[in-house]
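are you around this afternoon, could really use another pair of eyes. what follows is a protein written twice so to speak, once as letters and once as structure tokens for the fold. i want to understand how the tokens follow from the sequence so walk me through it. anything you notice is useful, everything is just below.
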Amino acid sequence: MKIARGVGMNTPLRYAVLEHFTHMISLARPLVEAIHHKDRDLANQVHRALNSAGLNIAEAFGNSGGNARVRFQSARGSLYEAQAGFRLAIAWGYITQAESAPTLESLNDLGARVYGLSRT
């Protein structure tokens, strides 16, 4: 299976996806810090999941075919893990639904983009 044209290392799509990811991290950072004050283990897990997602996305753009697809799928799994971590933090009362809504929305949007990339 081939990755579609335009998904390579130096494409506008790559920059757009990585820019989306860094914006999402800027939204997530204060939440992770707030969670850390109440539950270091959960905050560390969310932090690791977000780092893993970003690194797998970047690595996928440097691969082709099946290897890229696997990296995008791994990234999507890590995004789901981070999303679950934020939802757990809401359930535990560490953060609120209102303050986490922009981050969760950005995670959903990014997950959809990464899903699409994993299907090309």
About this structure: Residues 65-92 form the longest helix (28 residues).
